[in-house]
Task: inverse folding
């Protein structure tokens, strides 16, 4: 019992260590293998978690954590594939052995820390795991050693650490709320906290919740503490950008949801929802404005992440369960779409040698495979069907209308449309224009194409017809997040 | 001997004695500090009794008046000296119990009198046309205004601790128990008051006490144009102000012990001796500070003020937080 | 007379008065960091602050007779008062620069701003119904003030050492808060926190070195290329 949970943590960690000593090709193979194994294990967990929570001492996989674990594992696997192509550019000087060792070790460790964050069964260890993700990813952001990456890494580690300091305070305050009921010196397991939450002192829980939203929100990219995000996403190596944007933000959101769960039980849902609504709308508005005036393709995608995190927060503020299902589906779909988009952007940047979208023209002609797929991913991010994001945003809006919170839904629709406008404008500008003649036509690596195919496939499956096991999982997770009867 | 010590003094007599103690000891304390400073800096230094000789000499000298000065120039020193004579009637100089006039003014009352004295000296200095005197008086008023918030917050602290703002009660509260004497709010307020005293007596790091460099002068600069008896009053007054502040520091905040508990002559005389010892102790501390720190640049003095204010505010905050438990 | 006694706050016991005093020292150190012009003095102040926090942990251990907490106090003493300042000093030694004049605000304004923040923090915490068995209640308000002052330090100083020290100082504030409200937190969790801090220090050190290696300075004024 629980061997799969343990394996989920052991495999990436062991591979991370191994990558420091083995040759480069073996490290690439191990990383891809580890990603595949992790993803397979996560998929195996889906039907089980949809039926009952899996527990193993310090680890726990209930429906909620399995949703996020699946997102992390999927992107881990896809990124591992992409990284093979990313590190092997034809005609370029190969990266130093030191770089590739550190890179592979770091990627695996990063994925391991995120998987751990979703799997630990302890409020305090959750914080520890998320702090580990910060530390590892900050080093990965700085790994290229350019001026820009050093600056981005410094801002990231400083702002995220300060945010996590706040989150630590939230953890401590929540623990204090628990001591009133559970006595001194208890282990803050989720099950125990959730069971006793109804008797927690409301004022203390409220304080803890606000601190948690602010603190973990810093890592999730909520306005006004998102400032590190565009820098880190644009300066990191592309595989790291994809992991940051696609899964790290989701994992931070997961941490907020854990506090949400407790708060809903202790002080009722209205407070928890309104806090998220405020942060969510502010993030959406900011992202929509910045999306219309971006010049850097990776910053564009980063602000798109801020937008989608805003949608998640707003979605959680609707009381209809269908909206919560939509939010969780949105997490999965966003992971697939944003990962693919970053892969495509990385491919474009590599072929055309610039991130400046004013100078990227006709990418679709230059890159016969990743160009069209990037266009599809960007359109998917704009929530056009059959993207999974269309289904999830549809569910969120439907939930909002049945709540009914028509005014919020209207604002949401306007802001999302504005953001989509910015995103698709730049998408078409860079893709569907005449190809410049000076650039060599052709894909740089089949691995990159493969990773994008996988991502688009997942995005489409989520949009067209999510497997029944996954639907069951989402329903159960939404029930776990709801108000207990 | 025993009989004399048992003589009971009337309360007005003790009140007058408080005044006389300050009046008489003040120049001596100043002289002792100057002597200690000199010794710490490796000089032989002036005699301890030198200030008395200085005063005597000045009272015999003629008075020179700047051309444009009016009666304010004379009134300033006299008014200031009067203020310094009134304040010792209000504060616990010798006795642990409140004397009749002790209820006539609280800490704020005493503070106002001291401020009035400072103001009248500054006004008298502004009356002259001496540039350095005017510079000193404007600076002195500026820094007096900057240190004022700290004094107010110290007063608030005393008021919150004792529910009055009479210095006698603060001293009594501190004597009551060891816990009360080391409670953080009290320590913070005492430390803040220490900084205020440092500022108000024109000590390093705010002002070089014994310098002749006019540009660095704040308090000292104000008296440059005075001469003869008015100058003697100013010098005497500033020595008294220093001793009054020391008395407040030790008898209210830091060490409110050794005060006379009865009206008998013996304890009162002992209290005078104890006061002298405590004042010399404080003076020694100030002398050490004077010799081990350097003067702050004029525009850095605000940092010093901010520190005093910080301590005073913290005292209030701690009291606010502790009100529940 | 009884009415008078009711409005005056009770005199804290000698023991809790001492604890409050230590907490105040932690806060005053945070203020001193705002003033300290040189990076080295800031690191020393941080070491002193950590010492005070460890003393507070030892005090709680003594008052509650918990062996775990002694271990924790010792561990945080070693890590935060010795190892972390040591790492920072080493980075400074390699950089061979001692940053000064990185204040964006004058010291007096910064201190006044910090006082306002502290008052805010104290009043917010004071309005909460949080009681503690292990430490006097004022310590929590003071911890909130430490956190806010540390935030201000990160904002008003523009050199990497001040910013890192600001973060560590904030962590000290959180530690004090933890001692007040959650002194029963299991040892393993506390050790995990501490370990995490150590890792963060290493990362801060690495990034400082990277920054210095590229920019030849520890100032963050040059870090303004990424915007928009």
Result:
């Amino acid at each position: 019992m629980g061997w799969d949970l343990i394996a989920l943590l052991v495999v990436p960690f062991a591979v991370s260590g191994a990558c420091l000593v083995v040759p480069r090709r073996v490290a690439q193979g191990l990383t891809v293998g580890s990603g595949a194994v992790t993803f397979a294990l996560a998929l195996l967990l889906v039907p089980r978690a949809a039926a009952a929570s899996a527990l193993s001492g310090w680890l726990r996989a209930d429906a909620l954590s399995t949703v996020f674990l699946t997102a992390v594992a999927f992107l881990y696997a896809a990124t591992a594939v992409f990284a093979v192509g990313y590190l092997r550019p034809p005609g370029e000087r190969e990266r130093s052995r030191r770089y590739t060792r550190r890179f592979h070790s770091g990627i695996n460790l990063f994925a391991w820390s995120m998987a751990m964050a979703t799997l630990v069964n302890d409020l305090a260890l959750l914080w520890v795991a998320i702090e580990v993700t910060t530390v590892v990813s900050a080093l990965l952001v700085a790994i290229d050693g350019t001026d820009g990456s050093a600056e981005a890494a410094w801002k990231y580690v400083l702002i995220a650490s300060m945010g996590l300091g706040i989150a630590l305070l939230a953890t401590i305050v929540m623990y204090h709320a628990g001591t009133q009921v559970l006595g001194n010196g208890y282990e803050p397991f989720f099950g125990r906290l959730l069971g006793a939450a109804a008797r927690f002192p409301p004022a203390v829980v409220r304080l803890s919740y606000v601190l948690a939203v602010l603190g973990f929100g810093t890592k999730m990219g909520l306005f006004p503490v998102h400032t590190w995000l565009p820098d880190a996403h644009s300066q990191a190596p592309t595989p790291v950008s994809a992991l940051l944007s696609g899964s790290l933000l989701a994992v931070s959101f997961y941490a907020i949801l854990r506090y949400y769960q407790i708060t809903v039980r202790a002080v009722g849902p209205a407070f928890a929802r309104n806090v998220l609504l405020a942060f969510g709308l502010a993030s959406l508005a900011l992202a929509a404005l910045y999306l219309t005036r971006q010049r850097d393709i990776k910053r564009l995608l980063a602000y798109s992440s801020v937008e989608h995190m805003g949608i998640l927060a707003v979605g959680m503020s609707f009381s209809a369960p269908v909206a919560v299902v939509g939010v969780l589906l949105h997490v999965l779909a966003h992971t697939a779409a944003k990962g693919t988009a970053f892969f495509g952007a990385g491919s474009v940047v590599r072929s055309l040698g610039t991130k400046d979208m004013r100078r990227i023209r006709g990418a679709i002609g230059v890159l016969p495979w990743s160009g069209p797929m990037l266009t599809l991913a960007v359109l998917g991010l704009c929530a056009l069907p059959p993207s999974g994001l269309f289904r999830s945003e549809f569910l969120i809006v439907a939930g909002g209308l049945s709540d009914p919170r028509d005014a919020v839904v209207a604002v949401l629709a306007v802001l999302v449309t504005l953001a989509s406008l910015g995103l698709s404008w730049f998408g078409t500008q860079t893709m569907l224009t005449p190809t410049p003649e000076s650039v060599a036509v052709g894909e740089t690596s089949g691995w990159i194409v493969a990773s994008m195919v996988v991502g688009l496939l997942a995005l489409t499956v989520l949009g067209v017809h999510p497997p029944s096991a996954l639907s069951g999982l989402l329903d159960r997770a939404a029930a776990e997040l709801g108000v207990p009867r | 001997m025993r009989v004399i010590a048992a003589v009971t003094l009337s309360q007005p007599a003790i009140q007058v004695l408080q005044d006389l103690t300050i009046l008489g000891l003040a120049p001596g304390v100043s002289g002792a500090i100057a002597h200690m400073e000199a010794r710490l800096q490796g000089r032989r230094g002036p005699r301890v009794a030198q200030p008395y000789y200085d005063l005597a000499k000045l009272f015999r000298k003629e008075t020179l008046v700047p051309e444009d000065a009016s009666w304010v120039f004379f009134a300033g020193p006299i008014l200031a000296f009067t203020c310094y004579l009134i304040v010792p009637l209000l504060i616990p100089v010798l006795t642990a119990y409140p004397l009749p006039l002790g209820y006539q003014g609280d800490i704020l009352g005493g503070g106002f009198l001291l401020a009035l004295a400072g103001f009248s000296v500054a006004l008298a200095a502004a009356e002259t046309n001496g540039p350095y005197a005017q510079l000193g008086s404007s600076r002195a008023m500026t820094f007096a205004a900057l240190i004022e918030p700290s004094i107010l917050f110290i007063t608030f602290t005393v008021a919150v601790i004792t529910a009055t703002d009479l210095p006698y009660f603060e001293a009594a509260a501190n004597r009551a128990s060891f816990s009360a004497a080391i409670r953080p709010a009290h320590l913070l307020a005492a430390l803040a008051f220490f900084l205020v005293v440092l500022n108000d007596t024109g000590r390093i790091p705010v002002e070089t006490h014994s310098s002749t460099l006019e540009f660095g002068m704040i308090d000292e600069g104000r008296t440059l144009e005075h001469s003869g008896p008015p100058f003697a009053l100013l010098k005497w007054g500033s020595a008294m102000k220093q001793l009054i502040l020391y008395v407040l520091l030790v008898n209210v905040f830091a060490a409110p012990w050794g005060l006379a508990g009865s009206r008998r002559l013996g304890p009162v005389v002992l209290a005078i001796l104890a006061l002298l010892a405590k004042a010399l102790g404080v003076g020694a501390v100030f002398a050490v500070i004077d010799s081990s720190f350097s003067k702050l640049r004029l525009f850095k003095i605000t940092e010093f003020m901010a520190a005093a204010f910080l301590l005073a505010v913290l005292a209030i905050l701690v009291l606010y937080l502790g009100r529940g438990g | 007379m009884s009415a008078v006694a009711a409005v005056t706050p009770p005199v804290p016991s000698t023991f809790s008065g001492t604890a409050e005093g230590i907490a105040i020292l932690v806060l005053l150190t945070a203020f001193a960091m705002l003033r300290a012009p040189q990076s080295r003095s800031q690191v020393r102040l941080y070491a002193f602050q950590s010492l005070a926090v460890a003393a507070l942990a030892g005090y709680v251990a003594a008052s509650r007779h918990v062996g775990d907490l002694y271990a924790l106090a010792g561990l945080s003493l070693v890590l935060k008062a010795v190892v972390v300042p040591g790492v920072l000093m080493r980075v400074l030694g390699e950089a061979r620069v001692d940053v000064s004049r990185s204040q964006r605000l004058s010291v007096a304004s910064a201190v006044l701003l910090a006082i306002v923040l502290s008052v805010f923090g104290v009043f917010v915490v004071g309005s909460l119904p949080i009681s503690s068995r292990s430490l006097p209640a004022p310590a929590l308000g003071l911890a909130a003030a430490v956190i806010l002052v540390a935030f201000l330090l990160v904002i008003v100083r523009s050199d990497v050492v001040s910013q890192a020290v600001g973060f560590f100082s904030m962590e000290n504030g959180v530690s004090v808060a933890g001692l007040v409200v959650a002194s029963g937190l299991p040892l393993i969790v506390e050790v995990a926190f501490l370990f995490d801090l150590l890792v963060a220090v290493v990362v801060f050190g690495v990034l400082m070195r990277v920054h210095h290696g590229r920019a030849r300075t520890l100032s963050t004024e040059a870090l303004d290329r990424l915007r928009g």
Notes: The longest strand of chain A covers residues 54-56. Residues 147-182 of chain A form the longest helix (36 residues).
